[in-house]
Amino acid sequence: MVSTATMSTMRSLTQNWSFTQVGGEQGTKHDEWLAASQFPTTVHVELLKAKRIPDPFLGLNEWDVQWVGESDWAFKNTFEVSPKELAATNIDLVFDGLDTFASVEFNGYKILDTENQFIAHRVPVKQYLKQGANELVITFSSAFLKGRKLEKASGKFHLWNGDSSRLHVRKAQYNYGWDWGPVLMTIGPWKPVSLHTYNAHFTDLDVRSQVSEALDVKVTVDFTLSEKTSGLASIVLRSAQGYAIHTENDLQFESGSARAEFHFSIGELELWYPVGYGKQPLYTVEVTVSDTQGNTLDMKTQKVSFRRVRVVQEPLVDQEGLTFLFEVNNVRIFCGGSNWIPADSFLTTLTPERYRAWLQLLVDGNQNMIRVWGGGIYEYDVFYDICDELGILVWQDFMFGCGQYPAYDSFLKLIEVEAEQNVKRLRHHPSIVIFAGNNEDYQLAESLNIVDYSDETSDFRETKFPARYIYERTLPSIVKKLCDIYYHRGSPYSTPGTVTTDKTLGDLHQWNVWHGSQEPWHNWDILAGRFVSEFGMEGYPNIRTVDYWLAGDASERYPQSRINNNHNKADGFERRLELYLVENFKHAFDMDSYVYYTQVMQAETLAAAYRLWRRNWRGKGREHTAGALVWQINDCWPTASWAIVDYFLRPKPAYFTISRELRPYTVGMTRKEKKIFANDLSAAKFTIATILEVWGTNSTLSEKTAKLEVTCFDLHSSWTAQFSKDVLLAPNSSTELYSGDLPGQPVRTKQSEVPRVIIVSARLIDASGTVLGRYSNWPEPFKFIKFPPIKDLGLAVSSDGDSVMLSTQKPIKGIILDVEGEDVKWSDQAIDLVPGDPQIVEAVGLKGREVKIRFLGDGTA
């Protein structure tokens, strides 16, 4: 019979919490304790629910709540302890996460001081416990003020975004404000607090698998207990259906640790694949440990999967440099995905349902990778659980972003604990395929000219770039010791000795569209890198989101208003937005129009990047670009930013254009003008030919036969031309399909000759007549196009209640659908429509309402 007194038991303390402002009068009255509405929680969340502060997401209210983050706060809990709990050999209080500087007292005894949001703490408290009521008080000091003191003592360093004191504080860096987020310095117990009773418990469970190139599997299970005790362990590996696949009974252990190892031949276990390439089977490992009398001490389960992952950096057959690509189970994967920032300024408001909705949007948008950016948090467990389930590859940064971080001894000790805890917590997830040391810290160092890439052997702590010690010594050694996940020094990072802007090595943040040299988006092809882990373009969110933050103030409902400015944090955003708008569109400035034009611009920009970079994935040895991760998929508050889905999970049109470019089969086109001079002596005698190139992509692992159908339309006449050909799309590759003169476009001999407005529609069609992929190529810039009157378009819009049917007699560019009132869940947006190719858009929630339609040249500009 099992003695329950020896069982490890964890009890979450979720009830009877209250909080107060320490030594202040703004949030609570003197000695006033307000009941917490939930737990875990943070101060802003509770003050909002108690109606003690205005909503910082509305208007200019962000600036009226700054005092919250600059004040001290206390949280108090009273809980009962039973005689049975008191009888346990060991009793600990476990704090999964405190934000950030906290002093903890238990029954009047000080038991803990904390200074890192990202780590958990365990404190033995048996000696302080008493039967009946016990009081726990956690006092939080202002992280902002603490950081300023640390900076004064240890030095001021360079950074991009936020207050420079953040570099000394191990707290989510985006709380200090970023170029897409507000300054909201959260404070409080942001993760669970629990009472743990036990005789012995697991302090570490390390389940690893090695999948060989032949795809057989070796599994090792290592565990360590809190006590150096002896006993027996049982290990069971179960399938997703709950069947026991392998059982290891009566495994003897001594000194509180043991290892088991077992092997599986090819096919005995199902392998885990990224979405689109196979299944995502999730197995369970159950480990139970008992003492020598047969009493169960502890039991732990862990979800695991089995896959072989390599980051391949090898010479290309036709270009300089090395590949930078991910290979899963011997399959090379083009990674089309997004960057992820924390999905809320107030993390404790996030629910598993919201996480699932976000990540399902990613998968529904045909994306297969997400990068957890280094200025936020190591995400909650549920985030990675869902990625495992959905087959999303995860690029995981360590939490350093855009800064010249210090490396003094006390700071390094915090980093070591942080890295060890989080690597142990995350390493079993099959979705995580890379750890990266930081976000853009090497780039910042290059901009300051403080990095010597010829030096690979120094200690670095006494240099002007001391954090190299963290990224090149501390973190890689911890990752190597604790897991088998690939470690990359930073993002972006090339190779040792090379600058981060080298497009032939490593990963690249390509910000020369928007930032930097502000290149036209049409130059994405020449801006490509081996793996583009950041790039982007701003666009306004859904007009409903704009109206939400305007909070009914009609006088502020124009693009340049003070409130709208506060809800776009990017430096110089007005100049940059207008630069790209005026270069490409004839646009209007009313609020609704500005939302429309920035959205279409963002959609065009980002789709072009994915289209051109997928073309660069050309088969083994020619993977010139192996990934594209847009900045960013999400927002942490209602704002105008680079996000492709806004805070309320409303996709922008760019989400849909990216989705189209990441379908298993796509077709792409470019048109380039080629000027040929008659001789070397004259600049006035030349001809201008327009060259059309067409290619297809196929992300599946089988070749695909299809018909390429190309149709050309003259926007201002009834002229059309069409050709088609049978094509074979190579597996897991792009395939060039056509190159030649643009049909219908005469060769010009004068620069003043206005070219015909020829729209080219290309479709890939399979044997059953199904359209595998479509794309319409328009002449650019769009501002030069004289669009036909609406009455001449022959546009037809009809609905059956759940979908909208679109057809036209003239090509139409950039269709956005909307309705009055509550939003509709559309299956597509930013649609290009051509004659003879009607399209159907699903419309969940349409409920018979009239559909509003907007497009370029619709007369509103």
Automatic annotation (TrEMBL):
Reaction(s) catalysed by this chain, per the record, are: Hydrolysis of terminal, non-reducing beta-D-mannose residues in beta-D-mannosides
One of the GO BP terms on file: carbohydrate metabolic process
- Which residues does the UniProt record annotate as the domain Glycoside hydrolase family 2 immunoglobulin-like beta-sandwich? 200-307
Q: Which InterPro entries match?
A: Beta-gal/glucu_dom_sf, Beta-mannosidase-like_N2, Beta-mannosidase_GH2, Galactose-bd-like_sf, GH, Ig-like_fold, Ig-like_GH2, Mannosidase_ig
Boundaries of each Mannosidase Ig/CBM-like domain copy?
A: 691-783
Taxonomy, superkingdom: Eukaryota
Q: Which UniProt keywords apply?
A: Glycosidase, Hydrolase
- Keyword rRNA-binding present in the record's keywords: the answer is no
Gene Ontology MF, one: beta-mannosidase activity
Q: Where is the Beta-mannosidase-like galactose-binding domain?
A: 17-191
EC number(s) of the enzyme? 3.2.1.25
Does the keyword Hydrolase belong to this entry? yes
Q: Which pathway does it operate in?
A: Glycan metabolism; N-glycan degradation
Q: Which family does it belong to?
A: Belongs to the glycosyl hydrolase 2 family. Beta-mannosidase B subfamily.
PANTHER family xref list: BETA-MANNOSIDASE (PTHR43730:SF1)
The protein's name in its UniProt record: Beta-mannosidase B
> What is the species of this protein?
Rhizopogon vesiculosus
Identify the taxonomic lineage of the organism of origin: Eukaryota, Fungi, Dikarya, Basidiomycota, Agaricomycotina
